[in-house]
Design a protein that fits this description.
The protein is of the alpha/beta class and 348 residues long. The chain folds into two domains: 204 residues, TIM Barrel; 92 residues, Lyase, Ornithine Decarboxylase, Chain A, domain 1. It contains eleven helices and 20 strands. The strands form four sheets. Strands 1, 12, 15, 16, 17, 18, 19 and 20 form an eight-stranded mixed beta sheet that branches. Strands 3, 4, 5, 6, 7, 8, 9 and 10 form an eight-stranded parallel beta sheet that branches. α5 links the parallel β5 and β6. α1 packs across α3. The longest helix has 16 residues. Bound molecules: pyridoxal-5'-phosphate. Pyridoxal-5'-phosphate binds next to α9.
């Protein structure tokens, strides 16, 4: 496929990515600001993201598993850390022991496994109320972590995007843990957690969503720039005559004549059917609505207003994350991580 130009592409704005990281780093105060690049950099491409953030000065990166770690480990430089959020399974031990990445140990068994192997520096996840991964904050953490050399001790906020009592509760528990378990650094906040203010920043923050243009809380609006713009090529331009329907199950029927562009984009690319009849695409800034249902590989756009849109042209899909989330019923996270493998990813 070398040299192949796909009929759909993601335009990725490297300046916006770096600008978002800088804003988050500033908003993190005295804490260092890392980057969550799991799920292939939230769908943008982890290598491209990490390269740009390294150049901007980011020194701490987070991936989910050792497959993701292997993909970016060649980029590691002196003084740069890569942490694996899901810790280390038995199956990962060989790779982990030979890797410059650190496991974030999540369970007593993982901690015992790492200690027994003499694995060296590690990170540790303590659960403070989300009840997902991590050692239970109520447990005997000193016993579970004895003999470990902990670089970063982490916990994760369940509802940092909301104003709920659980945020302060988790923070209080985290302070208690900090006083009980020695580590070089302590880290609690994701993108939304950064917006909760300095009490939540500790030594290191780890944004994901907001790096990529997501707005986790109102405080970030106006500061975070869009990074991702999906574009798709027009495969055919056709005329709908009043009375014609379009697409699967004929959910749209024309009550007048329409000009329609069929674009190379569909739900297999992460453009899910929640956009059916609601999404829009643009040509030279002019907004034109989707007609009918999103297919696996195709959508139809009403281009009646633009006689100049022709086969082979590119249209830009409306994908401002907060708006697209409201329209589609998907979360901003899903909108990013669902972007499929068929897009060319083009950094500019
Ligand atoms: C994904 C993740 C992050 C980043 O969260 P965002 O909400 O995308 O900023 C931070 N910490 C942990 C443990 C995560 O799993």
């Amino acid at each position: 496929m070398h040299g192949y130009i796909a009929p759909l592409r993601l335009r990725l704005d490297g300046d916006a990515l770096v600008s978002n990281w800088r804003w988050l780093a500033g908003a993190s105060g005295d804490a260092a600001c890392g980057a969550a690049i799991k799920a292939d950099g939230y769908g943008l491409g982890a290598v491209g993201v990490m390269r740009r953030l390294l150049r901007a000065g980011c020194r701490d990166f987070f991936v989910s598993n050792w497959g993701e770690a292997a993909a970016v480990e060649p980029l590691l430089e002196e003084g740069v850390g890569l942490s694996v959020l899901h810790g280390v399974r038995e199956e990962d031990m060989r790779q982990a022991l030979g890797s410059r990445a650190r496991p974030i140990l999540c369970t007593p068994l993982q901690a015992a496994r790492w200690r027994a192997a003499g694995g060296g520096a590690c990170d540790l996840m303590v659960d403070t109320g989300m009840n997902r991964l991590g050692l239970d904050w109520r447990g005997d953490l000193a016993a579970a972590t004895g003999g470990l050399e902990i670089a970063t001790l982490l916990s994760h906020l369940a509802s940092a995007d909301e104003d709920v009592a659980l945020n302060a509760t988790q923070r209080q528990r985290f302070v208690g843990i900090r006083n009980a378990v020695a580590a070089q650094r302590y880290s609690l906040a994701n993108s939304a957690g950064i917006c909760l203010g300095r009490d939540y920043h500790f030594d290191l923050t780890r944004p994901g969503l907001a790096l990529y243009g997501g707005i986790p809380r109102d405080q970030a609006a106006g500061h975070i720039r869009a990074v991702v713009q999906p574009q798709a090529q027009v495969l055919q331009r056709r005329r709908l005559i009043a009375g014609d329907s379009i697409g699967y199950n004929a959910i749209f029927t024309a009550d007048r004549d329409h000009e329609v562009a069929i674009l190379n984009l569909g739900y297999a690319d992460g453009y899910l059917r929640g956009f059916s009849g609601k999404g829009a695409a643009r040509h030279e800034g002019e907004r034109m609505p989707l007609l009918g249902r999103v297919s696996m590989d195709l959508i139809a756009v009403d281009v009646s207003a633009r006689p100049d849109v022709a086969e082979g042209d590119w249209m830009t899909i409306d994908y401002a994350l907060p708006d697209a989330a409201a329209v589609s019923g998907l979360s901003q996270y899903e909108l990013l991580t669902g972007l499929g493998a068929r897009f060319d990813r083009v950094w500019e």
